[in-house]
Amino acid sequence: MQISINNFTKTFDGTPVIDDMNLTIRDGEMLALLGPSGCGKSTTLFTISGIHRMDKGQLMFGDRDVSGLPSQKRNVGVVFQNYALYPHMNVFENIAFPLTVRKDNKADIDREVRFIAALTHISELLERRPGQLSGGQQQRVALARALVRKPDVLLLDEPLANLDAKLRLEMRSEIRRIQLETGITAVLVTHDQVEAMSMCDRIAIMKKGEIVQIDTPADMYSNPRTSFVAGFLGNPPISLLNGIAMGNTFSIAPIKLRVPLGSHEGIADGTPLKLGVRPEHFGPEGDIAVEGKITFAETQGRENLYDVELADGSVLRSIQPAARNWKLGEPVRWFIDSKSAFVFSDDGLRL
Amino acid sequence: MTRNFAAWPIILLLTVLSLPLFIMYLFLLVDTFSNTAPGSLLPNEFTLEHWRFLIDPTITGDVWKPTLTTVIFSASLMIIVVSVSATAGYALSRLALPFRRFVLSGIMVMHAFPSVTLIIGVFLVLQFAGLYNSLTGVILVKASLMLPFGIWIMKGFYDAVPWEIEMAGVQDGASRFTVWRRIILPQVKPGLLSLALFAFIDGWSEYMLPRILAPSSDFEVLSMYLNTVSDPNSSTYNFNIFKSVGLFYTLPVLALFVLFQNRLMNIFGGGTKG
Fold first, then answer.
1. CATH code for A239-345?
2. What is the pLDDT of residue B271?
3. Residues B44, B36: contact at Cβ < 8 Å?
4. In chain B, which residues touch A (CB < 8 A)?
5. Looking at domain A3-226, which CATH architecture does it have?
6. Under an 8 A CB cutoff, do B164 and A81 touch?
7. N or C, where is chain B less crowded by C-beta within 10 Å?
């Protein structure tokens, strides 16, 4: 079901958290709300669920205006960060709870619970209590409970935050599989860009209560609208150089670095600019030579990660295949791939 | 369990310290089943005669009627305190009530007052309500004096239940009342149980309130009965019978403590969060 939020405004104790936000989540889509803590992503999520009320604005589930409805009447499934399973009930009772509240008949409940348990691969755990389950299993139970009454939308609040690294990988693909199999519209709140990029159809990046950009993961990575978005996506993160416009180039005079601005013509000389270079676009191959010294080297197995400090103190990150090892302190002459670099104005907007 | 130090010195110390109490209780028990010759320390004959007050009402008066009254008194107290604390504690912990802070500090102040200081006011209220000299009146007064403690303890238990569980229940389509009854209440069951026990034991040992608020009534609780038996000026005074009645009176409390001591300690572990 399509979910749309129109002109949504929310303040807590006089502090505006969300200001006039518009967002449409398409039917069957999985959308990530991505942003640093305090950006309003959880507020948005809990507004969709009905735990928070909108101060202003409208929330539509399909054609139905649910802005004024309490949580109980919204038909929303939520997976909480700490799963919030009911500790005194076993897994079956946990999953069945939404149905027993609705007073479905026993046979139906049994059938639905077993169906959803099979989907989430927890059929053999139905007799256990939450305390006897591992983190990943609890996560599956929470998902099953959220899905069992076929909600209009599934909301996931940092669902992987409490899992260890290996389980996180597993549950990442599991949640995506279950979402695709049920075809449910889903919203994922996360501060982890890898989660957002790997699981979702589209990402909405939020900052200080505003959606900065909403796009597919690939488009957002290759075409960020601001330096904030560019800095948030990608691991290791993008490096930003400060310089000025000079004769249609991005220039850092002291180290004689000049990167052609290409199509961005007519920028007055002396305008301060920022140049964003992703680690994979800086290395032994490229077109703009830069000299510097390796100040940080990290082995990651398949690849090595380097920080190269330029003569003026600015740092460029680089990621290189592990075949050739550069040592700490080694002077290098590497190149920036100027066509892949992003140019931002001083206030962070992409040119 | 790994031990950082040996346990036996502590056990020894505790044994020595509690020895006087233990010996006293031992002699109480022994004395009720035996006779001791004057001047001697050890008993010389076994007898059940000190316990005959249980079947023979002519000795000290019927013991079963006060016992029944005390059971009714303690049980009503328990029911009132538990049901009011369970709901009021939840409301204070979770609901956005008007004057919540005021009510909370009021409860704290009430909790701090010894009940004797309120007795004149309570007397006037009871007199006005026509409940003076009645069991109902005493139960109501005792229950309301216990409530600040009970509400405060239960609020602490509710505070420890994570919010997300409650939100999950609401999200699953349940009303706030259903969430409270089916999800939250089972989480605070240890608190409810220990509060119930405390209320029962407190009611069982209450002496002052029935004495003051129902002095001339036709009912009598066990503590008042014991007081009558212990009067050295009465014609039926017998120190060994007094001991037997005392033991009979203490027995249920001892039994409850032995059975539920772990749960009773719960109240101090889980219920202290302000």
1. 2.40.50.140
2. 42
3. yes
4. 162, 164-165, 167-175, 178, 182-183, 186-187
5. 3-Layer(aba) Sandwich (3.40)
6. yes
7. N
Per cent of chain A over pLDDT 70 is 99
pLDDT in tens, B122-179: 889 999 998 888 899 999 999 998 999 999 999 999 999 999 899 999 999 999 999 9
pLDDT band per the 50, 70, 90 thresholds, residue A97: very high
Q: What's the Cα-to-Cα distance from B163 to each of A86, A153, B93, B167, rounded to whole Å?
A: 12, 22, 11, 6
Using one digit for the tens of pLDDT, what is the confidence trace for A138-180?
A: 999 999 999 998 999 999 999 888 888 888 888 899 899 999 9
The DSSP annotation for A19-60 comes to EEEEEEE-TT-EEEEE-STTSSHHHHHHHHHTSSPPSEEEEE
Strands A153-157 and A56-61, sheet pairing: unpaired
pLDDT at B228: 82
Cβ neighbours of residue B15 closer than 8 Å, sequence gap 6 or more: none
> Which member of A84, A88, A101 has the closest CB to residue B162?
A84
**Contact (Cβ atoms closer than 8 angstroms) between residue A136 and residue A167:** yes
- CB-CB: which of B169, B171, B175 is closest to A49? B171
Interface test with A, best of B171, B184, B187 (most A CBs within 10 A): B171
**Domain parsing of chain A, residue ranges:** 3-226, 239-345
Q: What's the token pair of residue A185?
A: 């519209």
User: For B173, which of A51, A85, A102 is closest by C-beta distance?
Assistant: A102
- Collect all residues from A whose CB is shorter than 8 A from any CB in B: 49-51, 70-72, 75-78, 80-82, 84-88, 97-98, 101-102, 145-146, 149
DSSP secondary structure letters along A224-286 = -SBHHHHHHSSSSPPEEEEEEEETTEEEEGGGTEEEE-TT---PPTT-EEEEEE-GGGEESSS
Put simply, the answer to whether A101 touches B186 (Cβ < 8 Å) is: no
Say how far apart CA B56 and CA B52 lie, in whole Å.
6
The terminus-to-terminus CA distance of chain B in angstroms comes to: 31
3-state secondary structure of A185: strand
| Residue boundaries of the structural domains of chain B | 64-270
Q: Could you tell me which residue, A319 or A38, shows the higher pLDDT?
A: A319
Strand partners, A240: A276
Q: A97, B174: Cβ pair inside 8 Å?
A: yes
Rounded to the nearest 10 degrees, how much is the dihedral formed by the CA atoms of B165, A87, B172, A191?
50
Q: Which residue has the tokens 């032995």?
A: B258
Q: What pLDDT shows up at residue A251?
A: 83
Assess whether pLDDT exceeds 90 at residue A284. no
**Reported ipTM:** 0.80
DSSP SS3 for A86: coil
Q: Domain B64-270: which topology?
A: MetI-like fold (1.10.3720)
Asked if B264 contacts B194 with a C-beta cutoff of 8 angstroms, the reply is: yes
The total of other beta-carbon atoms located within 10 Å of residue B153's CB is 25
Quick check: bond before A98 cis, omega within 30? no
Give the pLDDT of residue B7: 85
Q: From the CB of residue A251, how many other CB atoms can be counted at a distance below 10 Å? A: 21
